[in-house]
Amino acid sequence: MSASHDQHHPMTLSGELRMDTGVIINKCYQCGKCSAGCPLSSEMDYPPSLVMRMLQTDDPKNYDKLLKSMTIWLCVSCEMCLTRCPMEIDIPRLMDNLRQKSVRAKKTNPQAKKIIAFHKSFLDSINYTGRLYEMGMVVDYKMRTGAMTQDVMIAPKMFVKGKLNPIPEIIKGRKKIAEIFNRVQNNKEVKL
Amino acid sequence: MQDFEPKIVAFVCNWCTYAGADLTGTSRTKYAANVKIIRFPCTGRIDFMILMKAFENGADGIIVSGCHPNDCHYSTGNFHARRRWIVFRNLMNFTGIDTERILFSWVSAAEGFKWADVVNNTVAKIREMGPYENYNKIAVSTLLKEEVSNHE
Amino acid sequence: MSRIGVFVCHCGENISATVNCEKVAQISKELKGVEFSTDYKYMCSDPGQTMLKEAIKEHKLDGVVVAACSPRMHEPTFRKACSEAGLNPYLCEMSNIREHCSWVHPKDDLTTEKAEDLVRVMVEKVKKNKALNSIKVPVTKTALVIGGGVAGIQAALDIANCGHKVVMVEKQPSIGGHMSQLSETFPTLDCSQCILTPRMVEIAQHPNITLYTYAEVEKVDGFIGNFKITVRKKSKSLDEHLCTGCGLCTTKCPQKKIPNEFERGLGFRPAIYVPFPQAVPNKPVIDRENCTYYIKGKCKVCEIVCPTKAIRFDQEDELVEIEAGAIVLATGFDVLKSDFFPEYGYGKYKDVIDGLQFERLASASGPTMGEIRRPSDGQIPKKIVFVACAGSRDPAKGIEYCSKICCMYTAKHAMLYKHKVHDGTPYVFYMDIRAGGKMYEEFVRRAIVEDETQYIRGRVSTIYEKNGKLIVKGADTLMGAEPVEIEADMVVLATAGVANHGAEALAQTVHVSYDAYKFFAEAHPKLKPVETNTAGIFLAGACQAPKDIPESVAAASGAAVKVAALFSNDELTREPLIAVVNRQAPPVFSSCVGCFLCQSVCPYQAIEREEIKNRNGEVIKTLAKVNEGLCQGCGTCVALCRTKAIDIHGYSNQQVYTEVMALLND
Amino acid sequence: MKIGFYPGCSMKGGAREYQESVVALAKVFDIELVEIPDWNCCGATAAHNLNKELSLSLPARIMALAEKEGITDIVVPCAACYNRLSVTKHELAEDASLCSKVTGIIDLKYSGKTNILNIIQFIDKYITDKLEEKVVKPFNYNTACYYGCLLVRPHAILNFDRVEDPQSMDVLVKKSGGNAIDWAFKTECCGAGMSVSRTDTVARLSGDILKDASDRKAEVMVVACPMCHSNLDMRRPEINKYLDEKISMPVLYISQVLGLAVGLDAKTLGLNRHMTEVILPDKPVKNAEPAEVSKKVANPEKMEA
Q1: Residue C114: which pLDDT band, with cuts at 50, 70 and 90?
Q2: How far away is chain C from the Cα of D120, in angstroms, using its nearest Cα?
Q3: Which of A73, B18, C413, C414 has its CA at a distance of 20 to 30 angstroms from the CA of residue D13?
Q4: Which residues of chain C does D301 touch, with a Cβ-Cβ cutoff of 8 Å?
């Protein structure tokens, strides 16, 4: 009876993102308030409002550009855009989703290597000890990026100030944490 | 149960939902033919005894629909309807009547699509619930019958 | 035994494409009490109606069912035809087999069966119909206009010039409304005061117009043609007949530091004041909340200096009863308070102002005598930023709709600024420019091309003060959403136009409906834009939705014509579909037990108390009685009556129960 | 009642002084904070950047552990952890199927009934009433309260303070005898977790924040987030290089400010651990007269008369 409702439509990008995140891309009317308030927009290859426009075009080429962009890795989830968006579009949530898709599609921007490496080192540290072991993480990060000399100057001072813990704190439930990591990885999400 | 076609009566007000259903027609939006509309001047006019009458005569489901709150043509009729519905729902639940079969909604004169949705959703829901055979088993119905026969 | 005629319309192919009309007619013929049944291509056409009339006469029909389109469409047509054939029009009913059947279902047996059901229901209903006579009510040819802005002024003058009496009620001490606050008007840049003031004077002097300022409508009873309105004239603490408007009191009043509402807080006024120099009436009122005498019990300077001894400290509010046949609502709009936008710092930074405040700055009679000077230090701003859509099109913090007038007034502001500050730079942050209107687009282009206003397409994220400058952070979405930062001297927010804050209460007082934004609702968005759903009450201007001056004036004249048309009759006829409380004589008997539940739910105060007396003149009981003039036929009383003593014509208990039974039992 | 305490990883390392000062401050007011046994990292930015389920599971485990201990209030002084815990609590409450999935992953009972308190909420609930009477050494410095992102946003979920121009920390500073200045960068982003991976960006963002505060004559900046602190404090050499001027303004945790006001010594509060040296010259106590800058906030309604 309601034939029009049942017809199968190929999923648009905005439909897919709506399903994955609940964010409705087409609400954006390009006022640019997000780009105006975003602390990082001057460094981004596509400021947030442009990201919204690119997604609205439903053009695979634009989507591809975004997955390969720096923007998604520069977003620090400060939520300024969401706070001031007249349409209350949850851009940070969208950015999370795009980041995960970018990693899954193996399209991450080469310049974002350091940022991703940092996140991965961070998670590895949690995976192994249950907590963030700052020193171990930094060493791990340096191994990943090759940025051996970065910040070596402040490390001794931090030691003196008692800010660097040479021994990792390992929690008793370490195995439980590892199990959590295993389970979420099996749940089709990003391979960490 | 496959062939079950529910009988559904819609009690609607003249100014909002009736006009909204007209708009559904004007927009040629299709919906299930199981629902038949009875026009009232206002949802405030709808006496809940008439819902009992509908069940007694074999209705499987009922829609009551009028103007949105604050939009009533008569300013407050729909509020009275809503108030009455809240009270009667409790009473009907108490007497064992299946109030799940009554849908109370607001459809404005501009909501042609919403009317089609309301109808289709109700038909689907009632179809799933099956025919309302229980009604006449409930003691209250006999009382109603007596009252009605006295009335006539 | 009834003799009912059934007429099934094909509506060209609109119905017959999915409904087997011949079959519907045939089946209907078999129904008990149906004397005649037929189908026809166009029942509403001339031949169709003639056929109906002839059938009524030939078959001596005592009831008619037309199965066609929605009764909301053609019920009056067929009832009139019946009446012309000598059948009481209220013995005619319509089955809606088009909108509710043929158009919404596919062509199959079920659809035809539904049409048959719908016809059967109406056949059964019509058997219970009663012959009714329409009700005649007289018309009081006085109009009440609520609100004295440009829309109210226009409506009042138009009605008065048709020769009818008008009473105008204005809440403020002067008429003139928002238009009197404006500096110049788009797209012609003529001075707002210059074109409005003569009309204000005309209101005061028109022999047909009675003006109550500083007054509010408190209560509205009655109905179209016969409204009874109570107006509260707030005390002005002044004998208006004695006062000559010399203004001595206002200059001598020691209390001088009250923020001036007319200047939007940019200037001050005394406690006894005339809102602005061209005010009508040009006589002061005492603002009792701020008057030293009313606060501390002594002062009375105004009384001492008044040459005509017109001050009345003990004057009380006065209630005035008005009888009117029609009401025009012209209560206008408010601007949204800008402090809901904390990121723009309105209220925190003195130099962030709203559009109306800018109007006052630009006005020759304003606090700066028309020079653009910023409020904080009186400097002339060299860089000024206008922020469009400050609150409009912003469901998160403001309102969802477009306020319509801001694009134009922002262009006008930029232009006025540039005309006054030649070396200054105006910036406009905008999202879209909506300049639909005669000479509007051209006007905006002029602001951009000739006056070199910098239009930047993007919204402002935040504004903060630094070293005496306002830092405006926005983005230019036409430059790839690149961030833009402007160090401005002053910022003007084009705040949204919203419903008057008293609109909801007034709507409830006068019984008209309003929309989700509290604007008054028109009866039809296209075809009845100045009517309300309450007969006899009309809308003029921005109380209905944001409107600019030309639109407000046009709507006001439209409302005035509706009033004049109404007043061209001495009597009105109304549908008799109203409630009635049963009575049987003698002695007067009714199943009414006098609980008066009906009275408490009636939205129209249409239920009266009737005392039934015996021969000795003693009251034996009090019964409910319906005032035919007031009842609008909603039927809420009927549903509530415990003894079924009250019933409603057209939707009587018998009728609706019959309908339900007929519908479910074929 | 047991008040739960979730220090989070940074307070065990880089932000050790934050924990020390919170514990010391609580002690002054006879409050015992019970560390949630065997807590794990909340996952911070890294987790929600890379894996949504992980980003919900890690905080959910923390809350589940607290529930097991019968803890109803968890104090989470780190703004980032506070944000993650609150968001997780919200998302799991909104979506029942997600909730059951996550409880499956963490393999613990989770009801979502624990209250998550940030440092200011904790102070307001247990300390503020008694604060003024305990102040022995008014903190009479021009203070810029920096809230950052994670304490106030997203407002719809956290519902804490005003999202623009928040005031809660300003009030605490005033009650400690300080002068909270009005400034523009209260909720601008400091660069957050990019301290290591994009130091130049952090220097720019944090630099702009410090510059505005210092231009408005702030003597101290107060924060409630270890991440903000490390960016504003530890990255000072890079910031000064970016600004091309030397800003020596110390950055204190709100708990340290309150601690100083109630008479705790600098060592106990861990002031010596800051990378930017904390120099707070003794100043004569003025009458609590607000500086000129803050007068402007006083009456935002003024224009609307």
Answers
A1: very high
A2: 22
A3: A73
A4: 339, 347
**Residue that has been written with the tokens 């399903």 in this structure:** A19
Closest CA to C510 of C270, C223, C167: C223
Query: What is the topology classification, in CATH, of domain C4-134?
Result: Rossmann fold (3.40.50)
Which of D44, D154, D196 is closest, CB to CB, to A83?
A: D154
Residues D40-47 have a mean pLDDT of 87
Q: Which chain C residue has the Cα nearest residue B61?
A: C664
Q: Domain coordinates of chain C in residue numbers?
A: 4-134, 142-226+319-332+501-567, 248-305, 335-498, 579-648
As a CATH number, domain C579-648 is 3.30.70.3270
CATH architecture observed for domain A10-107:
Orthogonal Bundle (1.10)
Render pLDDT for A142-159 as a digit per residue (tens, 0 to 9): 888 877 777 777 778 887
Specify the CATH class of C142-226+319-332+501-567 in words.
Answer: alpha beta
Q: What residue in C sits closest to A37 (Cα-Cα)?
A: C461
Cα separation, C423 vs C12, in Å, equals 70
- Tell me which residues of chain C, numbers 473 to 512, contact chain D at a CB-CB cutoff of 8 Å: none
Record: contact D301-C471, CB cut-off 8 A: no
> Contact at 8 Å (CB) between C119 and C6?
yes
Domains C142-226+319-332+501-567 and C335-498 share a fold: yes
Beta bridge partners of C185: C190
**Among residues 69-88 of chain A, which lie with CB inside 8 Å of chain C?**
80, 84-88
Of D40, D51, D156, the CB nearest to A100: D51
pLDDT at C254 over 70: yes
Is residue C587 reached through a cis peptide bond, with omega within 30 degrees of 0 on the bond before it? yes
Closest by CA position to D231, among listed D19, D25, D10, D57: D10
Per-residue pLDDT band at D292 (split at 50, 70, 90): very low
The closest alpha carbon to A49, from B128, C251, C645, C458, belongs to C458
- Residues in chain D with CB shorter than 8 Å from the CB of C467 are 215
Angle between helices D52-68 and A91-104 (to 10 degrees): 110
- Between CA B105 and CA B120 the distance in angstroms is 13
Q: C-alpha dihedral over C628, C629, C630, C633, to 10 degrees?
A: 50
Burial D91-114 (b: 16+ CB within 10 A, else e): bbeeeeeebebbbebbebebeeeb
Domains of chain D: 3-119 (1.20.1050.140), 132-296 (3.40.50.11810)
Pinpoint the residues of chain A covered by CATH 1.10.1060.10: 10-107
- Report yes or no: A20 at the D interface, CB cutoff 8 Å: no
**Mutating which of A96, A138, A139, A181 best tests the D interface, going by the most D Cβ atoms within 10 A?**
A96
* C589 to A180, B99, C534, C592: CA distances (angstroms): 82, 38, 34, 8
| Chain A adjacent subunits, 3+ CB pairs under 8 A | B, C, D
Distances, alpha carbon C321 to alpha carbons C218, C324, C330, in Å: 10, 10, 20
Q: Give the nearest chain A residue to B29 (CA atoms).
A: A2
pLDDT at C546: 96
Q: Nearest-CA residue of chain A relative to D238?
A: A151
Fold adopted by B8-151: Rossmann fold (3.40.50)
> What are the residue ranges spanned by the domains of chain B?
8-151
Instruction: Please give the CATH number for the structural domain made up of C335-498.
Output: 3.50.50.60
If pLDDT is split at 50, 70 and 90, which confidence band does C266 have? very high
Distance, CA of C285 to CA of C299 (rounded, Å): 16
pLDDT at A191 over 50: no
Using an 8 Å CB-CB cutoff, list chain C residues near A50: 480-481
Name the pTM for this structure: 0.79
